[in-house]
Amino acid sequence: KQEVTQIPAALSVPEGENLVLNCSFTDSAIYNLQWFRQDPGKGLTSLLLIQSSQREQTSGRLNASLDKSSGRSTLYIAASQPGDSATYLCAVSSNTGKLIFGQGTTLQVKP
Amino acid sequence: DTGVSQNPRHKITKRGQNVTFRCDPISEHNRLYWYRQTLGQGPEFLTYFQNEAQLEKSRLLSDRFSAERPKGSFSTLEIQRTEQGDSAMYLCASSLVPTSGNEQFFGPGTRLTVL
Fold this sequence. Notes:
- The complex is a heterodimer.
- By secondary structure, chain A is mainly β.
- In chain A, 0% of the residues lie in helices and 58% in strands.
């Protein structure tokens, strides 16, 4: 059974700091991995999708990496801003498409 | 707005009542997913459709839950005889396979409160 773990559960950093969020999964037979952002009481916003054959994806200040063999992904946020404050969720997909989510990392960026 | 939409956004009901939620996916997306999220947890998969066919259901989806996507466009999720444990955010997502690599786009969710 696939299990996804995100560490840390919460993180508070000063504005401008670079940071790394971690995601690990137990079964390396994944189809893809997605990182999402969720603001309180809202739906999920897709940030980055990494196919199983890829090692990383970049979008603006965000960079996500994938190491299938070790069952790990990281989300790197450069030059953090208060507007980045949210919960970040990692999810892995099998070939059936359903997503298995971690519990998320709640990020607070202090001005 | 061409994103995924969900209605209603909030629903308060009494225990034992039936409720129905609607999801309108991104136009031409052939897959539609339902997830449930409780406070402080990541979303959990409930079921998904490819076009009008329901291809997988989670064990979380008890007999009181039913989902349909009759014409392969919008979908409804009905919960019969609601229980307090059904209180959660119900999220819908859609994707286009195989073109987009099954990147899923989520709606704003329907928050259900069962009193």
